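RECORD TYPE: inverse folding
INPUT: structure tokens
STRUCTURE:
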């Protein structure tokens, strides 16, 4: 069963993939997230590419066109120093929210 990516976590997942593996194209980022979560989270193109575009505008990532392993042109995204700082912020916020949710769902 596929689960929607929780609101507010897509940036974190993309930034973490780039932090872990370095430059990646969009399909590679989506595939990494899907494989790492054992197919629980699937990033649709309609969400991924607009998010990457917003991240470019915010200067969290930079992009350049390169050849893929299959000899196709693809835009490769790289984390910027500002993106690394944002990843830390995103993780802290995610952990804060998860702690709050745990307080609600734990047995009394």
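DESIGNED SEQUENCE:
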């Amino acid at each position: 069963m596929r689960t929607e990516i929780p609101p507010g976590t897509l940036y974190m997942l993309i930034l973490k993939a780039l932090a872990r593996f370095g430059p990646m194209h969009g399909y590679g980022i989506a595939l990494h997230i899907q494989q790492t979560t054992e197919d629980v989270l699937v990033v649709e193109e309609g969400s991924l590419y607009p998010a990457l575009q917003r991240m470019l505008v915010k200067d969290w990532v930079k992009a350049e066109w390169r050849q893929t392993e299959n000899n196709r042109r693809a835009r490769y995204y790289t984390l910027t120093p500002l993106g690394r700082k944002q990843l830390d912020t995103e993780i802290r916020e995610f952990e804060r929210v998860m702690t709050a949710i745990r307080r609600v769902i734990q047995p009394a």
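NOTES: The domain at 10-105 is CATH 1.10.10.10 (Arc Repressor Mutant, subunit A).
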